[in-house]
Amino acid sequence: MNTTALIRPAWTPATIALMVLGFVVFWPLGLAMLAYIIWGDRLDGFKRDVNRATDGIFAGCRRGADKAHRWSNGPRGMSRTGNVAFDDWRDKELERLAEERRKLDDALAEFDEYARELRRAKDQEEFDRFMANRNKSTAPTVRKRDGESDNLLDD
Hints:
By secondary structure, the protein is mainly α. It has helices spanning about 15-25, 25-40, 45-75, 85-140.
């Protein structure tokens, strides 16, 4: 820590004045300043420990976020462990899994195209049936009188 700082964890005129001012304004501020003066030199170690702990927690979050991007970035986006054999094996396995993922994505695209074509064929069949029924119902009907034949050429 920089020992020339104006506010440092020591009994300096500035820290004493801030502590007294803190007690005058709002007593928890004065108490906090007193704690800083007494235990502030341990603050660096405390901050370091807290940072390590939170880095460990947030590293898990980052790993979770990295998993979402891992397939697009490939296996090289991950940090190396230092064990060359393990890193090589992991890279091969991740590449194999990425290839399997690509195969599954291709199969999904093929199936989607097949299902889309099937729906289009079904829709076309339903439309053709509708048009045939519509044409039957709109065709002019000729009523027969008693004794008339179906053939119009008989006249």
